């Protein structure tokens, strides 16, 4: 089936079977590899993207979202956060706080942080921990990620 997706501020047309995972479409059809395959069950956060239906962005597992669902919302991947070669403030903060090690979870954590700051510009430590909780990191950069979100909140 043909779908028109709104991704990273533009419109992209894809022709894929109904029910195809958004993650697969992003990576294989659109070449956007920032969202990673982790568990395939929405439990690790590696595949998170922002989905905005007009009520503000929320972090969603792209491995659980079908392409037909994605066609009804604006999708932003980690690649779409930067503008005019300028990193998003959360991306800058993660770099400044060295909040990555192997980097596999980083894009999902950044997406979760952006969604949090969109809804709560000055979050408490508890809110930050809750927002990052779905993002599993085997390297254990949680303390640095929390500092990065605080830095981005300014």
What secondary-structure arrangement, pairings included, does this model have?
Blueprint: E1 2-7, E2 10-15, H1 22-29, E3 48-52, E4 58-61, H2 67-70, E5 74-76, H3 89-96, H4 106-119, H5 125-132, H6 142-153
Parallel strand pairs: 1-5
Antiparallel strand pairs: 1-2, 3-4, 3-5
Helix pairs in contact: 3-6, 4-5, 5-6
The multimeric state of the shown protein is single chain
H/E element order: EEHEEHEHHHH
The tally of structural domains comes to 2
Query: What composes the largest sheet?
Result: 5 strands, mixed
- What is the CA-based Rg, rounded? 15 Å
Shape descriptor reads: globular
Mean pLDDT: 97
> What is the architecture of the largest domain at the second tier of CATH?
Roll
DSSP strand count = 5
- Supply the number of helical segments: 6
How are the strands of the largest sheet arranged? 2-1-5-3-4
Q: What share of the residues lie within helices?
A: 25-40%
Descriptive labels:
154 residues; alpha+beta; Ubiquitin-like (UB roll); DNA polymerase, domain 1; 2 domains; five-stranded mixed sheet; 6 helices; 5 strands
Please provide a written account of the structure.
This protein is α+β, with helices and mostly antiparallel strands and 154 residues long. Helix content is 35%, strand content 16%. The chain contains six helices and five strands, in the order E-E-H-E-E-H-E-H-H-H-H. Strands 2-1-5-3-4 form a five-stranded mixed sheet, sandwiched between helices.
């Amino acid at each position: 089936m043909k779908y028109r997706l709104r991704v990273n501020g533009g419109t992209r047309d894809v022709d894929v079977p109904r029910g195809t995972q958004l993650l697969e479409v992003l990576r294989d059809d659109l070449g956007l590899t920032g969202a990673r395959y982790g568990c395939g069950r929405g439990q690790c956060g590696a595949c998170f993207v922002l989905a905005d239906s007009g009520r503000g962005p929320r972090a969603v597992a792209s491995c659980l979202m079908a392409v037909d669902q994605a066609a009804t919302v604006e999708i932003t991947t980690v690649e779409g956060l930067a503008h005019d070669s300028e990193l998003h403030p959360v991306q800058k903060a993660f770099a400044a706080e060295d909040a990555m090690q192997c980097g596999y979870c980083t894009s999902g954590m950044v997406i979760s942080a952006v969604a949090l700051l969109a809804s709560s510009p000055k979050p408490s430590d508890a809110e930050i921990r809750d927002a990052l909780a779905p993002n599993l990191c085997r390297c254990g950069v949680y303390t640095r990620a929390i500092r990065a979100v605080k830095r981005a909140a300014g």
